[in-house]
Design a protein that fits this description.
Layout (H helix, E strand, L loop, with lengths): L7 E2 L2 E2 L28 E6 L9 H14 L5 E8 L3 H7 L4 E5 L4 H19 L3 E4 L12 E5 L3 H4 L6 H17 L2 E4 L2 H10 L7 E3 L17 H7 L6 E5 L8 H12 L6 E5 L7 H10 L5 E5 L3 H10 L2 E4 L8 H8 L4 E4 L3 H6 L4 E3 L4 H13 L1 H15 L4 H17 L2
Parallel strand pairs: 3-4, 3-6, 4-5, 6-7, 7-8, 8-9, 10-11, 10-13, 11-12, 13-14, 14-15
Antiparallel strand pairs: 1-2, 1-5
Length: 415
């Protein structure tokens, strides 16, 4: 059985039950809520054991949420279950949180720990709510549970994922949604999918968008940007894509559109920033067949500082996904003043609104036309930049935390 350690707050040992003083919390949000009396703060256990070594969208969500929840000690006493390897990263972002280190050496071990040991940890910690931020919850849980539903494509586009993942996530997401007192969807698109495909009750689903840190994701240039891009051997001008390389990102369409474009814009290059995922060989074959492989630069996973420098230097972010539960790079790029071209039909259209250039998915010709339009029209590019900056101001991790706190209060209030 995976072993846990003593709880720590910012590196110091603390008692499992923290502090009490009988203050009242503010009311809830969304469809109802109320005051919760008793503790100085709402005591919540957030399961962060799904944090990957190289955080992408869901990992960034966990990091941003932990940081902002911990910054509200008058509203919440945050307990975090985390793998021991992740403690330095998480504690650096959340010094007021109580951390419960867990020794987990494999994914099956994590799943077993979630179903068997996490409920016991919740009881020992005396929490009032448990939050599963990555689709799943313990199925036997004697207190309110909140689960976050991210990506509906396991249900809507199963051919875009590994079969084993589809079987696991469709089953466990349905079970997690059924067990949850409240469900957080990260977009309205995700809310509809959680109801239609995962069986969520409409009156129990709250939309809480993801965010960015405006202190970091801001327009440049910054002094360090050129050096960071130089370290990656990226020269301007370039188009940028950011994400995990997998079939639902529709990178072959991007390569086809770019190959057509670059025949007239020989100086332009395409930079792909992201780690290999399942099905990455489709992209490699598309690059080899494009005839412009020398103008396409896969960088692999990049650090957050490098990613921000890439956004600031790009002529545009091109994000042609078939479907997304949110599409965090769209928001990150807008916050950095980078024009965005993305696709219709799922969350990126919702998040970008009128501040992005939209094309249908799986349509290289329309994508190529949008690239030409944005690159060839400085006025339009400027409008996208300014509209994106304005749009991004409404999406911060602080707002994500406030919405999440409202969901916690609703969960406790309905227990």
């Amino acid at each position: 059985m995976p072993a846990g350690g003593s709880p720590t707050r910012g590196g110091a040992d603390v008692g499992a039950h923290g502090r009490r003083d009988g203050r009242l919390l503010p009311g809830g949000h969304g469809r109802g809520g109320g005051q919760i009396a008793g503790d100085v703060s709402l005591r919540v256990l957030l399961d962060a054991t799904s944090l990957p070594p190289k955080p992408a969208g869901v990992g960034q969500y966990l990091l941003g949420l932990v940081h902002e929840l911990a910054a509200r000690p008058d509203d919440i006493e945050l307990h975090v279950a985390a793998k021991k390897r992740d403690l330095p990263t998480l504690q650096g972002r959340a010094s007021t949180a109580v951390f419960h280190p867990v020794a987990l050496r494999s994914r099956p071990a994590r799943l077993l720990w979630e179903q068997t040991s996490l409920p016991r940890l919740a009881r020992r910690a005396g929490v009032r709510v448990i939050h599963g931020p990555h689709y799943t919850l313990p199925l036997r849980l004697a207190l309110p549970g909140v689960v976050t539903f991210h990506d509906p494509t396991f249900f809507t586009d199963p051919d875009l994922h590994e079969r084993a993942k589809v079987r696991y996530f469709t089953r466990m997401a349905r079970l997690g949604v059924a067990r949850a007192t409240r469900v957080i969807a990260v977009s309205e698109y995700g809310r509809r999918a959680a109801i239609e495909h995962a069986g969520a009750r409409a009156d129990r689903v709250d939309v809480v968008h993801l965010g960015v840190d405006p202190a970091r994701y801001r327009p440049g240039p910054e002094v360090a940007d050129e050096g960071l891009r130089g370290r990656l051997r990226v020269d301007r001008p370039y188009l940028l894509w950011v994400g995990t390389i997998e079939p639902r990102k529709d990178l072959p369409s991007l390569v086809a559109a770019f190959a057509s474009l670059v025949r007239e814009r020989a100086a332009q290059s395409l930079v792909l920033a992201g780690q290999r995922g399942w099905g990455a060989s489709d992209l490699e074959r598309a690059i080899e067949a494009s005839g412009v492989a020398g103008r396409i630069h896969p960088l692999g996973y990049v650090s957050e500082e490098e990613k921000i420098a890439l956004y600031r230097g790009a002529d545009a972010l091109v994000y042609p996904s078939i479907a997304e539960g949110f599409g965090l790079p769209v928001l990150e790029a807008m916050a950095c003043g980078c024009p965005v071209i993305t696709t219709t039909g799922s969350a990126p259209e919702e998040i970008g609104g009128e501040a992005v250039e939209l094309v249908p998915p799986r349509d290289p010709d329309r994508l190529r036309a949008a690239l030409e339009l944005v690159l060839g029209n400085p006025e339009r590019r400027g409008r996208l930049r300014h509209a994106g900056l304005e749009r991004a101001r409404g999406f911060t991790w602080g707002r994500t935390a406030e919405g999440t706190l409202g969901t916690y209060r609703l969960a406790v209030g309905s227990a």
